[in-house]
Automatic annotation (TrEMBL):
The keyword Ligase is annotated on this UniProt entry: yes
Key words of the record: Ligase
Record-annotated AMP-dependent synthetase/ligase domain positions: 1-302
InterPro entries documented for this protein: AMP-bd_C, AMP-bd_C_sf, AMP-binding_CS, AMP-dep_synth/lig_dom, ANL_N_sf, ATP-dep_AMP-bd_enzyme
Pfam families named in the record: AMP-binding, AMP-binding_C
AMP-binding enzyme C-terminal domain segment(s): 352-427
GO molecular function terms attached to this record: ligase activity
Protein name: Acyl-CoA synthetase (AMP-forming)/AMP-acid ligase II
Organism of origin: Symbiobacterium terraclitae
Length: 438
């Protein structure tokens, strides 16, 4: 279901009965929903009545267990009955299956216990200093782990108020003003779209103590633009579903100098390392993979031992993110390991190229990726959204990059596109862009 109070009520009701919650994105098709039902072996599907067509399609798919479906309003009519609670509940029992966004392949269910969910919520409340008088804005989908476990449960843990709505740029601004929200969370694209509102200056955001963002890369220029419009109280959160989500954060004091970084320390009850392919810690300036060890880690992927062994090694979660530390210890995410492009045997990190290209005034946003090349292994393509709809000549973009990047990092193809394809979590789907050349 989309964001609505019944989702929070249903969440705690299932837990009180000893059940496991499997959040399902309301934008899923019946086919996608069927995968969750089939993989999780769900026994009950609670849904918004408006989504009945997708629910019917999913329940009719092949291999679906005997799952019942009930519209949320009907379920709440039964609230007068006192439930019979199991007497053997443990904090180590499974609480959630949070399915990863699945930018490649089918989504996998990250299995979290009550202990790990509690660790995530209490961490966020502690790090963000949430108090009972606070009002936390939840307009990003509550089916995402960052919203559910960080903001919704973090606010609940602290006794604060949850303000619930379904994102549009206008509604985000309106709810902050109307409800006097003290903390807002959003994916970068949610803030960037809100900043484009022509009447943004008319809204009163004086109640906000913390603007928090995370879930996708954000360039230094974008962060500074956000800081200029919304003020200095910005927090960057880095983590992943498999870790709670948990990881690191960049606090407001460090944004002016280190915008674009994800901070230099792990959050409470979390450790972070950056290692090479042999598992050795890399020196400052060197690129390595981010590893996380935390009390909020998943126990593994549901019914997928192979993927679990590949991801959790000696208690550390392999994030698949490549990063480097600077001399002061601040961490900069370079790229996803799977997105790295190898040109003539040399590693090229698309995010570095994207940040250079994004500084051109004719580029609204961009995505860089590799495609096969018969001699060089891969060649670099930059798909970009023209600012104002006016395309920029490829040679001009190439010259712009040449002033900022080594020659081998410069894209050979510049492709204007009307918009970058994204999944429901706001992450760019580069494999969709890559299809044209494959």
């Amino acid at each position: 279901m989309p964001n609505r109070p019944e989702m929070a009520v249903g969440l705690f009701a299932v837990w009180k009965l000893g059940g496991v919650v499997v959040p399902a994105n309301p934008r899923f098709t019946g086919f996608e929903l069927a995968h969750l039902l089939r993989d999780s072996e769900a026994s009950l599907l609670v849904h918004d009545p408006a989504l009945a067509p997708q629910v019917s399609e999913a329940l009719g798919a092949e291999g679906i267990p005997a799952a019942a479906a009930v519209p949320a309003p009907e379920l709440l009519e039964e609230h007068g009955r006192e439930p019979v609670l199991p007497d053997d509940l443990s904090s180590a029992d499974l609480a959630e299956l949070i399915y990863t966004s699945g930018t490649t392949g089918a989504p996998k269910g990250a299995a979290h216990t009550h202990d790990s969910v509690y660790a995530t919520a209490s961490m966020f409340a502690y790090e963000m200093s949430i108090r009972p008088g606070d009002r936390v804005l939840n307009v990003m989908p509550m089916t995402f782990s960052a919203v559910l476990n960080l903001t919704v449960l973090g606010a609940t843990y602290a006794g604060a108020t949850n303000v619930i709505g379904n994102y549009t740029p206008q509604l985000m601004a309106q709810l902050i003003q109307q409800e006097r929200c003290t903390l807002a969370f959003g994916a970068p694209v949610a803030y960037l779209m809100m900043l484009k509102l022509p009447n943004l200056h008319e809204y009163d955001f004086s109640s906000v103590k913390s603007w928090t963002y995370g879930g996708a890369p954000m360039s230094r220029e974008q962060v500074l633009a956000m800081r200029e419009r919304l003020g200095p109280n910005l927090y960057c959160l880095y983590g992943l579903t498999e870790a709670g989500p948990n990881g690191t954060f960049l606090d407001p004091a460090d944004h002016e100098k280190h915008a674009g970084s994800v901070g230099r320390r792990a959050t409470v009850n979390t450790e972070i390392r950056i290692v090479d392919d042999e598992g050795r810690d890399v020196a400052p300036g060197e690129v390595g993979e981010v590893l996380l060890r935390t009390t909020s880690a998943m126990t593994g992927y549901w019914r997928n031992e192979k993927a679990t062994r590949e991801t959790i090694v000696d208690g550390w979660i392999r994030t698949g993110d490549l990063a480097r530390r600077d001399e002061e210890g601040f961490i900069y995410i370079v790229d996803r390991r799977k997105d790295m492009v190898i040109v003539g045997g040399i590693n090229v990190y698309p995010r570095e190229v994207e940040e250079a290209l994004a500084t051109h005034p004719g580029v609204e946003e961009c995505a860089v990726f590799g495609i096969p090349h018969p001699e060089w292994g891969e060649t670099i393509v930059a798909a970009y959204v023209p600012r104002g709809g006016a395309e920029t000549p490829a040679e001009e973009l190439r010259s712009h990059c040449a002033a900022r990047l080594a020659e081998y990092k410069i894209p050979r193809i510049f492709e204007p596109v009307p918009a970058l394809p994204r999944n429901s979590n706001g992450k760019v789907l580069k494999h969709e862009l890559r299809k044209r050349w494959l």
